[in-house]
Amino acid sequence: MRGLPDLEKSLFELIRRTSTDLPVDVEAALRRSLGKERKGSRAAWVLSSILENVALARKKDLPICQDTGELVFSYHVPIGFDVNALIAETRSAVSMATQRGYLRQNTYDSVTGAPYETNIAYGLPVFQFHHGARKVIDVRLLMKGGGSENIGCQYSLPDVNLNAGRDLDGVRRCVLDAVHRAQGDGCPPNVAGVCIGGDRASGYEHAREQFFRKLDDKSPVRTLAKLESKILREANRLGVGPMGLGGAATLLGVKTGALSRLPASFFVTVSFMCWVFRRRGIVLGSEGEIGRWLYR
Amino acid sequence: MRSKMMAPFTVEKVRDLKVGDTVDLNGRIFTGRDRVLKHLFEGGACPVNLKDGVIYLCGPVVIRRDGKWLVQASGPTSSMRAEPYMPAIVQKYGVRIIVGKGGMGHGTAKACAKFGCVYLEAVGGTAQILNQCIQKVGDVHFCREFGTTEAMWELEVADFPAIVSIDSRGRSIHKRVQSSSKRILKKILKDSPPFRG
Predict the structure, then answer these.
(1) Given an 8 Å threshold on Cβ–Cβ distance, is B177 in contact with A276?
(2) ipTM (interface pTM)
């Protein structure tokens, strides 16, 4: 891209680091979880292996998990910014990261079943743009494992089976049910991203958007902050535990957001991240170099 | 109990394992995930001998350098997706060990009991710990059709750590955790104070 000669290199570095170096907020949460498990228990063994693996991947500069997931790129750009070049540079960085083994060949044609060797195809990676009154560009990347994507789900309130009404307690009931249903399939301890309201499509997108928040932040909406901590407390009483083999650590966090809704609709959408919660971000400098890292 | 297991993984060795045992696998294992398992289930040709063998539900990160395959990361994938295929494959091919994560269902547990097979849980996401156990990458099958991720890889492993979560009596940690967590969920929804904001 003209004016940003270092852009491709920066995007490659963003992908490399996201794949190999788990963010500190996630690692700290895993460490806290280990402290709460009984010594010598299965759950403690699982969490110790997890932490050992995190350190090993960082040291060897190799992917933490072989499922390098769905790549969700989220860009914050100045109003009027031409995004096409940004997409082209990102695609080229993804292709390079795949060739070098920081990303798995992880994209298939849904009709013919053919593999895409560079991970560049229609619909993947996912690109999201946020245009705003700002001077700098920031790029955030979420690598979302397939196992955790598969356990996401959507409820429509009221739900008679869960005794869930059209209110925030109904939301709580849905999320707890979703955590229970997921069991070990999405590599717990998970993080739950929740969208209250919206429509069938926006619900999933907004639920996933929650994963760009820091794990240790609090919702600025006081009611939602309270809801998040109640759900987190209760979910961790279920005993699903690390990898679903039993234990205290089922969720590392709950992040809720809300979208307005039609009077007829009241959706609750739950998206999950696996414990390999890969999310990083960079702010670009004037040449497209990495000005600074987000999320520390 | 922690035990070292060497290939061949005979029915006698497998019958000795109980849920909760930790196992270190040694010998040749075969990866196979969604595409391979569907292919075998539908009666497609199997390029390897799975008798007394291991199916590892895994799609590795593989690159090719200087004419050689390099496995950069490898670990288990969610096994529940293989549930429709696995009982028939265990029966037909005499598979003794399935390695995956997240557990499998009733059909597979029943097949484990009937034909003498176990399901081992490797810790999901620990792709570097598990990758270190690979001593040698052997032949690869279905690579062109299914891609490197869904291909069937022959891997020699040493001390590959896993835990028996479904044994050959059909006992399952997953089933146990599922029913106990269901009981707790019901209790929370019934007795815990509702959220009022």
Answers:
(1) no
(2) 0.96
